[in-house]
Queue: 4 jobs
Job 1
Amino acid sequence: MKIPTTAAVLVASAVGAVGIWRLEKHSQRSNALHAAQMHQELIAEVAANPEIQEVWMPPGGERSEYTLLLHVNRLVSFLSVKFRVGLLNDESLGVQAKAAMEREAVRRYWETYGGFREEEAMDSTDAKFNEIMSAAYDKAVRPARRPQAEAAA
């Protein structure tokens, strides 16, 4: 069976387009991982060096609290890049976010910087990440509802 030239060209074009799309996705993931690595190194350097902390610490901030929040930022950034490159989906990120928000320091970080992370979101992936983290935060800080029978007792 002979395939018409037009069909062969269309198939070759489609295969080429898919290849280019996959290469672009791989490049985006690779760039995200490289940027995350640089970010992690920067945070580690700032956390370890009081002189550099002076540059970044909010005015009137307490060094020990700022250092703790830097470490939490490393965790949140790690989760963010895992979500971006597909190592976490919505459900698994939700599990990770819930576990993280069980810790007081993570809740303090989200209270302080969650709004900034929402402002700097550059696409729907960042927005979805922030939405999942915020939902876990809201659930963690919301007072547990007691059944009415317990409340009346």
Job 2
Amino acid sequence: MSQQHADPAFRPPQQARSRMSLQKVLAATEHVLATGGIEEFTVAAVAKQAGVSVGAIYRRFTGKEQLLHAVKDQLLGQLETGVAEALRSAESGLDGVVAAFTHAMARTFSHHDRIFPDLLSGQRTEGVERGLQALAAIQDALAEAAEPYGDDIRRADRRLALRAAARACTGPPPATPGRMG
């Protein structure tokens, strides 16, 4: 879980065994969400899947919402990392950059096809902000990787054109509470 986006009440593990236990809980949370959706998601179901007690989860997280936030943060971090790695190894040319970006997005969403919609809907304000930060990060990564091929973009505002291409892959940004997306 990325420290810069972590929930302030989250208690990060200090020891290696505790970090492994946290990863086991987060993987179990992903599994519960992937197989049963948000409707079946309970702390008890996660504890059972992870092979830990419910109390062990509550010692780390204040509740179900904080656990969801931690999983969302981890998955968005994986998305950001996956896109950045794909763009670093992209074939030369604008086509290669856009193809690498598109494949990285498709790969991430296909591995978590049931989880992302559940995590991105009905969020608290800080959850929306984290989603917007991830969206901005991957759009910036695309713009930076495509910069050497700017002459191949036939729009006056090249950065805006790249953001539009990124949105075509990611969909519209999530609506923040009190604002229409």
Job 3
Amino acid sequence: MYIRPPRQSDIDAFLAYRNDPASMAKVGAAPLSVDGGLELLTKQMSKGEADPGWRMFMIVRKEDDRVIGETGAFLRLADEREADIGWWLHPDCRGKGYATEAAKLIVAWCLEYIRVDLVTSTCLADNLASRKVMQRIGMEQEEAGPNANGVDEYRAIIRANRAAEKR
């Protein structure tokens, strides 16, 4: 598995996992149209690697070069450099370690390339699969409980260890 920037040719695979009815119901989102999906992919394609805001990468399975999902980071690069990471997989690719692999890659990109000080990830509190991914990649629980909208969430963090670089 590897990650790469999106392409317009990813549209069918993108809509296949993004518009999964069970996932859409869980997050309370409306399905994306082809035009809406192409607009999102095109916007992502035009971003520089370190531009603030959402930066998306496609998760691609090596053995068949199939786009199976996405990972990315919402970059906040002001005084405190932070990234909030996430992932979204096609239903038939869940539970196979792809999210953990992708999360490790996006954390490394955030810490080593973008050089953020803090990486966070947030999911619905009952999303045990994403919570396990966060734990597997070494994130520590920061908080759990209702957000501003009263929805129970789980949040975990990894802080950059720059002490060794200062020597």
Job 4
Amino acid sequence: MNNSLSSNRLTGLTLLIAIAFFMEQLDSTIAVTAINNIADDLSVHSTTITMAIAVYIMTLAIFLPIGGWSAKKFGCKNTFFICHYIIYCRLFGLWL
């Protein structure tokens, strides 16, 4: 079995990673730009929303490498299902 990636597959993988990073940056930019509107809608001070967005971005910075490590160690499919299981169990627990 050949472990090297073909040129087309490598290009596709690179494009996929670039799109994922672009989406993450776009998400952070939209959240930071909308701070005042979010604060007005929730009737809280904008400093509170700024702290929430800062914590959100720091959490992403922490868990992104952990997700990559776990995908390498346990496999992408297993990591995906475990993460979704944890998220859905938490959401179901909050719903009860």
